[in-house]
Design a protein that fits this description.
It is a single-pass type I membrane protein. Helices cover 17% and strands 31% of the residues. It is of the alpha+beta class. Among the domains are: 153 residues, Mannose-Binding Protein A, subunit A (Mannose-Binding Protein A, Chain A, Roll), CATH 3.10.100; 61 residues, Laminin; 56 residues. The strands form 15 sheets. Strands 1, 2, 3, 4, 5, 6, 7 and 8 form an eight-stranded mixed sheet that branches. A five-stranded antiparallel sheet has the order 11-10-13-14-15, with no helix packed on it. Helix 1 runs parallel beside helix 3.
Length: 550
């Protein structure tokens, strides 16, 4: 950017300070697209200089970039002396580690991409910054007057310099008092005077697009050699009078210089399309043109386009909305039945079926009879590999009705428990992998899962022509899941059984000894009766025989 602007700034230097300016007006001004910088060679303290810039609608100059530095160099050329910049230290001491050393711009911020200090930080207390022809920044006491000051004026847009032959000698004046005839750009409110034409133009907002342009209060074009007569398109002199003309599809605005669309000011509610020397109105999709030819009214798409929706159609302003019945959802513009599995809680696999869903289990599992959405381990053989957690070797599971069996090599299997050996059934029993089934003898019927009762004479044994059933199966009861017994438990059971056998043997010996006492003892107890004595003699041989067996 510096390479592009510097040549332009050098070309504009001829217009700086060439006019004899009255006191209080800038001695030189340079304007860019959004900024103007002016120099005032009037001695003043920092506060006085700042107030003078503010009265003109600006503030003391901020030099934040090399572009501003180039403008500053042009303003200071061929002049010596110090000028205030808009940089100050309100209080405290300088901070060498910071780019601005703790100083701040008069705009209240410390943002900058450029610094040019002359020497190391000076003393503490309020300090201000001045600049000389070498462009170096120097700290000074704020109350000491400098030889002048630099003002900065900012604006959003600008008017370009008018194209005109040199003979016309057009001069310009800015709102802050700068005058000259060779500006690159002029801020809003600036005035251009062409004395030879007796013409005065002002840089102001245009009524058509809100941009800045040169104009005057009276409509129509001025001399075409000065800024194309103010015309947007073509300026022609006809019969000694300048006139503006516009391209097809546009027309002259009320000022007689700008070109506006044929649709400008058209009453169309939605769209306007230029049509020859006029226009016609159109409406957005979902609307139709009303009878007045300019307003638009909504079209009921649901009524004019039957079947546009699968199930329900709701007309809206400028369009329509398709909806689905309960139990359906919109998928790519069509209603589809909501999958029941979306709301199911199947542990493994879910299958949508008409009117509902069905849960399935992975291999090695079956659906839990107590909870249809859950799965439990299942084995349909007498033995199956155990379900083990690979992260924990001892964490293995077997289906109900199986017991874990450790094999050589760390293999773990689930072995079926034969519940029929546990006498669960009152009559007959059939073992199945993981379960069992009880059956009753002929002439009996089940009372519950295990017990049977005899069929009474009053109960019918036949039904129609069917043969009587010889066996009535009872419902299978799955026993509690068995696990491997701890060796300590087996030892305890063995010790208990042996203890009971020893107790029984001791009891039998005691009874035998009691019955086989010596004759003297028996005679003593039976001396009172001859019949008893006879009875004792009959018993004695038996006792003797028992003693011999023992």
């Amino acid at each position: 950017m510096r390479r592009l602007l510097l040549p332009l700034l050098l070309l504009a230097a001829a217009g700086l300070g060439l006019l004899s300016e009255p006191p209080g007006e800038p001695s030189g001004t340079q304007c860019l697209e959004h900024d103007c910088f002016s120099v005032f060679w009037q001695p003043a303290a920092f506060s006085e200089a700042s107030a003078a810039c503010e009265r003109r609608g600006g503030h003391l100059m901020t030099v934040r970039s090399t572009v501003a530095e180039d403008a500053l160099a042009l303003l200071l050329q061929n002049r010596s002396g110090s000028l205030w910049l808009g940089l100050r230290l309100p209080h405290g001491c300088p901070e060498p580690a910071q780019r601005l050393r703790g100083f701040q711009w008069v705009t209240g911020d410390r943002r900058t991409d450029y610094v040019n200090w002359r020497r190391a930080p000076g003393r503490c207390g309020p300090r201000c910054v001045a600049v000389a022809r070498d462009l170096r920044w120097e700290e000074r006491r704020c109350e000491a007057p400098a030889d002048g000051f630099l003002c900065e004026f900012n604006y959003g847009n600008s008017c370009p310099k008018l194209r005109a032959p040199a003979a016309l000698n057009v001069t310009y004046a800015t709102p802050f008092g700068a005058r000259g005839n060779d500006f690159l750009a002029l801020p809003p409110g600036s005035v251009a005077r062409a004395a030879a034409l007796g013409l005065e133009l002002r840089c102001a907002e245009s009524g058509s697009d809100g941009g800045l342009r040169w104009g005057r209060e009276s409509p129509g074009a001025w001399a075409c050699e000065l800024g194309n007569g103010g015309c947007d398109e073509e300026c022609r002199d006809k019969d000694g009078r300048p006139r503006c003309s516009c391209l097809p599809g546009t027309r002259l605005g009320t000022d007689g210089r700008s070109c506006v669309s044929l649709c400008a000011g058209a009453p169309c509610q939605h769209l306007c399309v230029p049509d020859g020397a006029g226009f016609h109105c159109m409406c957005d999709a979902g609307y139709e043109l009303a009878a007045d030819g300019s307003s638009c009214q909504d079209v009921d798409d649901c009524a004019t386009k039957p079947g546009i929706c699968d199930q329900e159609c709701l007309n809206t302003e400028g369009g329509f909305e398709c909806r689905c019945h309960s139990g359906y959802e919109m998928v790519e513009g069509h209603c589809r039945a909501v999958p029941h599995c979306r709301k199911a809680n199947c542990a493994h696999v879910c299958e949508d079926v008409p009117g509902g869903y069905r849960c399935h289990c992975f291999s090695g599992y079956i659906v839990d009879p107590q909870q249809a959405t859950q799965c439990v381990l299942h084995c349909n053989r007498s033995e199956c590999p155990a379900e083990c957690d690979p992260r924990t070797e001892e964490s293995c599971e077997c289906p109900d009705g199986f017991i874990l069996d450790d094999r050589e090599g760390g293999l773990k299997f689930c072995i079926d428990i034969n519940e029929c050996d546990m006498n669960y059934c009152e009559h007959n029993c059939t073992n199945h992998p993981g379960s069992y089934a009880c059956h009753c003898h002929a002439g009996y019927m089940p009372v519950d899962q295990h017990r049977c009762k005899k069929v009474g004479d009053e109960e019918e044994m036949y039904s129609g022509d069917r043969e009587p059933s010889t066996e009535v199966p009872a419902a299978t009861r799955t026993p509690p899941k068995a696990g491997p017994l701890h060796p300590g438990v087996l030892v305890g059971i063995t010790v208990g059984i042996l203890s009971m056998v020893l107790v029984l043997l001791a009891l039998v010996c005691h009874l035998v000894k009691k019955r086989c006492r010596s004759p003297s003892s028996m005679d003593y107890k039976c001396s009172g009766s001859a019949e008893k004595e006879m009875g004792l003699h009959q018993v004695t041989p038996a006792c003797a025989s028992s003693s011999q067996k023992l």
